Amino acid sequence: QVQLVESGGGLVQPGGSLRLSCAASGFNLDSYAIAWFRQAPGKEREGVSCITTSDGTTRYSQSVEGRFTISRDNAKNAVYLQMNSLKPEDTAVYYCAASNRIESAQHMGVLSLITGWYDYWGQGTQVTVSS
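^ that's the sequence the OP posted. Answer follows.
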């Protein structure tokens, strides 16, 4: 059974850091593009970052570029999102998702952060940035 499980969320003060993890079971992540999305109350789910294995490229939304870093560990079948300099507007439920239809985050560009390209989703982890 294909499953993605996120962890690492929590409450952090503005300016702080968190590291989210996405663990996969039932399939090998190294054959998929993996992305992080987030959804705040009353807002649509938005793409945050994507990473692809075929060319090792990444993509970030403008709102997080320079503060967030996505990485993957194929040996552990996991993907991570290091979030630094967190802001209150980063508060959301964060989801990881997998797609076998995206070969290059760089080539796909902003399309790699569109929900419709992703077939497998985790249940999400809450991130709250507040003082």
